[in-house]
Amino acid sequence: MSRKVEILYTGIVGLVPEPATNSFKVVVQNASDVHHGEEPHVAWIAVEKDNLPVPKELGKPLDQDKKNGYVAYGLRGWDAEFDNHVTSGSLHTTNYFRRFILRLADGCHPAYPGRDRIDRRCRGVDDPATIAARFPIRLGELDAGHVEVGLLWQWDLPGAARQHVTQEAIHRFEIAEDELVLSLTNGDDDFEVLLRSKTPEDPIRLIVGNTLPDDIFPNKPPKPEDDVHVRMYYDLAAMTYPSAARPALKRRESQRELKNPPQGPPKKRRGFRRAHGSNCPPGLWSS
Predict the structure, then answer these.
(1) pLDDT tens-digit profile of 129-153?
(2) Are strands 78-82 and 131-137 parallel, antiparallel or unpaired?
(3) Which of 13, 64, 196, 281 has a C-alpha 20 to 30 A away from that of 231?
């Protein structure tokens, strides 16, 4: 019997297409330094509290979500791999993902085209000062998660379109084993995290984020505001993108609420949800 897995990505998390293998590389950048006027972020991984022995290499918890039973740990230069037999077929992206993912190409100033391609060194070099973690997306389904139904977002550039944006990307796949084996290495240390679900019927769940420290498990929905943090994505661009030219995402009220959002109607949410407000969205790099 196959076991379902759901991995949710949120915050300043870049999705890098790998067309040759029909896959993605998830690049979680180290955004812990104050620069460009943005606030420092922390990269983290959250697991269900009661379903695993915690390896000492994960360090001390950063935060806890006592209501939903999750504990978050910091990510510091880890390359991730899932050492399981994945029974899902070839990767496909859903219509929701293609419609609502934030495209970094749209944030390129006309005077600085092509800044939507990531520096290739970020795909495979162990540099904790630059990269906090990398995860593979190879098989299964890549979907959008929570979308604020009453808000539109617009790059602060001439002629930019207003759009609904997902705050989460969700990778779903199935494995043959009862436990998800998450292998982490940083060149010096190698260890495994064994993840289980609460019941055989529940998916095995994992959350990867790169957010403000207070927004790992916020106690209440933050007030939506313009997002200047998305400018940090372009720190990893293959070509230099001057800070002053990088646009923010402007918050715009929508005249009508989005019908049929990815998360479903309020009383019938699909899957699980971490976002509680307008935290930074995952960003899609160009191939």
Answers:
(1) 789 999 999 999 999 998 888 889 9
(2) parallel
(3) 64
Query: pLDDT tens, 41-88?
Result: 999 999 888 766 778 888 899 998 887 788 999 998 899 999 999 999
- Please give the structure tokens belonging to residue 206: 């994992």
Residue 264 Rama label (left phi>0; alpha psi -120 to 50; beta): left
Low pLDDT (below 70) residues in the chain: 34-38, 51-52, 124-128, 220-223, 264-278
- Spatial distance between the Cα atoms of 203 and 178, rounded to a whole number of angstroms: 10
Query: 0.85 exceeded by the pTM?
Result: yes
